[in-house]
Amino acid sequence: MKIQNDARYAKSDEWVRVEGGVAFVGVSDYAQGKLGDVVFVGEISVGSTLKAGDLLTSVESVKAASDVYTPVSGKVLEVNHEVTAKPELLNSDAFGAGWLAKIELSNPDELNSLMSATDYAEYRKE
Amino acid sequence: MQNIERNRFSFIPATGDEQQAMLQKIGLQFDDIVKCFAGNSCVEGGLNLPDGLTEDQMVEYWDTMMSRNSGPRKASLLGAGAYMHFIPAVVPHLASLPGFVTAYTPYQPEISQGTLQSLFEFQSFMVELTDMELANCSMYDGASSAAEAMLMAHRIKKADRVLVAATVNPNYLATVRTYLKPHGIAVDVVRMDGDGRVSMEDLQLKLSVSACSAVLVQSPNYLGIIEDLGAIGTAVHGHDALFVESFTEAMALGLLKYGVGTGADIVVGEGQSLGLSMSFGGPHLGVFATLKKYNRDFPGRIVGESIDTKGRQAFVMTLRAREQDIRREKATSNICSNHALNALTAAVYLGSVGESGFRALACENVAKLQKLISGLEATGHFTRVFKQSPVFNEAVLASSIAPEDMRSRLAGVPVFPPLALAPGVVPEVQGMPHTYLVCATEMLKNNILEQVLGALN
Amino acid sequence: MTLFEKSVAGRSAFSFGFEEDRAVAERYVPEFARAAVKSLPQVAELDLVRHFTNLATKNYGVDTGFYPLGSCTMKYNPKINERMAADPRLTVRHPLDNATDNQGILQMEFELKESLQEITGMDDFTLQPACGAHGELTGMLIIHAYMRDHDAKRTKVLIPDSAHGTNPASASMAGFQVVTVPSNERGGVDMDALDKLMDDTVAAIMLTNPNTVGLFEENITQIAELVHARGGLLYYDGANLNALMGLIRPGDLGFDVVHLNLHKTFATPHGGGGPGAAPVGVKKLLADYLPIPVVVCRDGQYALDENRPHTIGRMSGFYGNTAVLARAYVYIKMMGRDGLLATSRAAVINANYVKALLSPYFPPAYDRPVMHETVLSAKGYDKYGVTLLDIAKRLMDYGYHPPTIYFPHFPPYAEEVMMVEPTESESKETMDLFCDALIKISQEAKENPDLLLSAPHDTVVTRVNETYAARHLVTSHRDKKGT
């Protein structure tokens, strides 16, 4: 199971990483492993304002469908069109090229209530 | 008594001795196994049903019972959602092959390529005939497909209102209402105009008054009249709603334009005319086709082409994440089994008639209806209602002949008599208070047509 | 190759005596006429026959071999049913034709209705629903309409975690909010959880009995009393009725609405995924809500009655899948009272027998006698690097269709399980051979797991790439041409 050390994690397996004042959000490597080969990433509307825990999108494999919830509140600035075109990126590079959305944080304190990389690794230890 | 037992148990191979041996292996007697019922009611004294029949007794019983139906029919002047067409012998022959009939749902593609490929071919036929981008591998019937299309449109557009043309088959409208009622989605009916088609004026009005998710129109409509789907599509797309085209007579697909060329977002309908018997109403065949951009939103199963580990062409059910076993309460529909064998039958039928045969049959239907109308009008007892409006194989005629009289006159002719419409459905004609929806297909051969005209003269 | 890929311009399989001038129609409505479709296949009749006959051989069917599919009841489809259902006095009948001219068909439907009422202990039936999910939707719409009239705040439906996916999907389609009830360590509904969840916002509980792990719900009487006492209704998913005929009746257990699967319990063929039929039975209090029309008998005359003041409306264009109903009718008529009981009895014995043979290798989810199906776990095999899917695929090399896999799924009791339902149709030898095969595979898993991982080898196609299918979506011949 790959882990991104500088990211924070939600119990529902989403990660968030702040880079240049903007939050990148995606699903963890553990989550993509459970899903299997990802075949579809649903639409995310740019400009929408979300609260932490709101539905961001849904992701599909051949045998399962998973709802993805945003771990942080804010406005969606950008959507990763590469992963919509090539959903397999979510499998091969869940923390990198498989990012789903860039969010402008409205409440940076929320990051503190998410799990650290070590805590998440422990939580998802098999 | 022994004789009867031997026959009944032909469907249960286990002998008494074998069952004893099995119970020994299990280590329990049968009563022990079902003692979990203890405290609950068991059927006292057995079910109150007659003794079973042997096969020959069953044939006899069935024969006596079915002889209570009226005589054999060679053609039908009755349409209104079910149609009597010619079915080539090769169609039931291939559709009854045990490999297709006794097969399970193709969840294990390696041993279900027969079903999967036939369904892929059915989907291919439907895409071509409806001129849409993808088609599922069947629903139950046209009415429930129309209802599911409304629900799909609601999922996409979210407005709690749909418009349905008054000229849609009344049973389809009723089914749409049943499906939509618990969700609080309003069903507004768009009025009919003076030509027996959906009123463009009323459509524009109803589209403008508030948002709606979909507009459902049928062509040929319930009165047999061909709607101007292109014009309706343009009107619908002037507002943010989905345009849903429907048909009850699949043979019309051989001659009339549907689909992307007329602005359709979804095309649904009844495929019974494609090689299936009317069978007193079922099982028929729900057709559902849509655009690729809605490929996560549509209901029903769909088969895709793929490859196996050796790179060979292989078919498999795909886009499964929409379905009930994965999505449960968030599924696009609860549909599980569909009408797969009937979809296969339709594929065989279309392979048998071919495009040229299918178009030729559609043309024959049009010509037969025109001939029948001329003949009926010539008797002086009938006149066409909505004369200016083009029809396919059904039309409304007003008559001075009452329904009971119609039936008794036609009693000696091997045809299903036409549907008597309720008063007020269409405008009244002076001196001809009774109205009928009259159908003519390729089965209305000239000699039968002459008998009909002779009886109604 | 698909039929489309076998097309040769100019070939034809059609022979029909056209009497009219084609030009009449071509001239008639030019503005609405479509362009000629160029890409439909043109084949000769022999091409068509060979194409589909060969496709049929690529299919496994009940007529070919054993289907141990739990909850599907893949029993033998008697051929007498096919012969009766092909009778032109049934097939060449228009549904809107006068009832007085169709007394034979209506008699058949009415007698079927009465038989089903007797078998299930219910008061009235609709024969309209086309298959199980449609029946569930019909039943749940009836409950929804009833509650709307009597107690509109009841917007929830309780469904066990072991339920078939159509249950929550149907409840949702009927306008309800779904609340899941956990199962207990005995394999039944957790009564404490039920006690907490059953309140005055709950319209109904949907149950399958025996449930999806093949166990009879031990507390069914208490569940019925509790739910009724608190104002709710009980819905019965009849998928597993094959275990109960002549032994016990859902109506007597307290169920208010029942759906049956004629393509399971009553031997109508599965057809590769339908058509089936799913009559829905109700107790008197809900009879007025049935979809119309309902087949009735008055003074020896059969008719289709539309007089149901609170009807939910229509679920379809006509009255149900008559040709499927006819097959079930013949089956019930031939089995009779004693045959139906013998059927359920044999189904239950067979399932327990298979459980006894396989338990040492695939431990049962619950150590209790089962009804007509058994749920066995393959959890231990992952240490050989082998999953339940691999075991299932390897079974195909032995000539069997795999059992139901990964369902039901409600950890910790049911995980990596397969559901085996032999039905009464299978002989002792078939079951012995099937179990031998599974036992051999369990040994192969330890000694030669690659055989399983690369299975199936002996089928017409090997493992089909589902990811490829979804990522390169080709669902029609038109897609292949890249339009």
Automatic annotation (TrEMBL), chain A:
Entry-linked SUPFAM superfamilies: Single hybrid motif
Domain Lipoyl-binding: 22-104
Superkingdom in the source lineage: Bacteria
Pfam families: GCV_H
Record's keyword annotation contains Ribonucleoprotein: no
NCBIfam families (alphabetical): gcvH, PRK01202.1
Homology family: Belongs to the GcvH family.
Function: The glycine cleavage system catalyzes the degradation of glycine. The H protein shuttles the methylamine group of glycine from the P protein to the T protein.
Quaternary structure annotation from Swiss-Prot or TrEMBL: The glycine cleavage system is composed of four proteins: P, T, L and H.
Name by which UniProt lists this protein: Glycine cleavage system H protein
